[in-house]
Amino acid sequence: xxxxxxxxxxxxxxxxxxxxxxxxxxxxxxxxxxxxxxxxxxxxxxxxxxxxxxxxxxxxxxxxxxxxxxxxxxxxxxxxxxxxxxxxxxxxxxxxxxxxxxxxxxxxxxxxxxxxxxxxxxxxxxxxxxxxxxxxxxxxxxxxxxxxxxxxxxxxxxxxxxxxxxxxxxxxxxxxxxxxxxxxxxxxxxxxxxxxxxxxxxxxxxxxxxxxxxxxxxxxxxxxxxxxxxxx
Length: 232
Ligand code: SF4
Hints:
This protein is an alpha+beta fold. About 20% of the residues lie in helices and about 15% in strands. The protein contains 8 helices and 8 strands; from the N terminus they run βααβαββαβαβαααββ. The strands form 4 sheets. A two-stranded antiparallel sheet has the order 1-2. β3 and β4 form a beta hairpin. The longest helix has 14 residues. The chain is globular. The model has no long low-confidence stretch (mean pLDDT about 85). The protein binds iron/sulfur cluster. The site of iron/sulfur cluster has 14 residues, from α3. The site of iron/sulfur cluster (SF4) has 14 residues, from α3.
């Protein structure tokens, strides 16, 4: 297999966790305890019993964000709405924030993607540029990047409410990852509204925060996966 070493740039990664049923455990289940003593307890051989958990991992928009306190130029800060936001043109690329983020979700932008022949997928001309999302800030080389919770979509909704009237509580903002997920595994909403779907899910007993013991008070919660593993 050819190993590809490259700089990576993405704002959400899919972590995978594997669990196995050991041969001893499997045999115990089959009431074959006599043979179980001869097996290597540390070795897992029942590959057919592999279970996989997928965990999308992006910026958790921590209320006590460790990335914010280490930035010497305040390029990452907290918004009044609870977002951990980047001011790209203030960032000087120290990468301290990336080092201090316990979830490792920040990426350093090593390249100038726009108008770069190496990244020209028919985008580096006036017509091609019309395809690129005009609502997202164009970043340059040398800044730290991360998930913004699609702040441009939140802003668009706020402007719409301001123009047309109404209440933000009744507006459903969808993030790009949420819209792209075919199984509706991602839910986004207003945690200040106790009646919103996201608030109800946060109160669900299956909801948990990753690395909760660090007390960074992340805004993202995951639901424990429940599987019926009893053999029939
Ligand atoms: S997940 Fe990382 S980048 Fe996002 S707010 Fe928390 S510490 Fe900062």
